[in-house]
Amino acid sequence: MLRVLAYQAVWPEVLGLRPIQIVVVRDPEGKFRDAYLFTTDLGASLSWVVATFARRWSIEVMFKASKQVMGIEGPQHWCRESIEKLAPRVWLMQSVVSLWYLTVGHAVPEAESARRNLGPWDTEWSLGARPPDCDHGRDN
User: Fold this and answer.
1) CA distances (Å), 134 to each of 53, 118, 123, 130, in order?
2) Torsions phi, psi for 63 (to 5 deg)
3) Where a domain ends, among 43, 68, 93?
4) Residues forming a β-bridge with 3
5) Residue 73: what pLDDT?
């Protein structure tokens, strides 16, 4: 069980005098650090704020893989249309690769080799996991 408390405040350096809702989440057993969540939706329920924050982790992982593994920031584009097309295409490719791995790819011999080399923060289908002989210029 977690304890949750909400209050409204203003944060002048960020939003001027526009009020925000601050939600504090505390684990009375002390296993987790306190979390301080902010929303501009003053009518949002506490459960919605906490659940929305919890769901964001998969999005953060996707952004990290987009930048560090897929190189989404690498291409240099000179027009707005190219920039707007890049992210959806990279994310579609990530989705296709993940779907392939979850349905078929986990059974290929290279997948077993990659699983043996997973780091402590990798998941089995992490885009960063790779066979040991395929370092692509990155440090192992």
Assistant:
1) 35, 13, 18, 6
2) -65, -40
3) 68
4) 26
5) 74
Helix axes 46-68, 80-103, angle to 10 degrees: 100
The domain total for the chain is 2
1's enclosing H/E stretch is: none
Q: How far apart are CA 51 and CA 33, in angstroms?
A: 17
Give strand pairing partners of 20: 9
**CA 86/CA 79 separation, integer angstroms:** 11
What residue type is assigned to position 66 of the chain?
S
Domain ranges, residue 3 = 1-68
| Shared domain check, 138 and 77 | yes
Below-50 pLDDT ranges, the chain: 131, 134-140
The token pair that represents 54 in the structure block: 């919890």
Cut 0.70: pTM above it = no
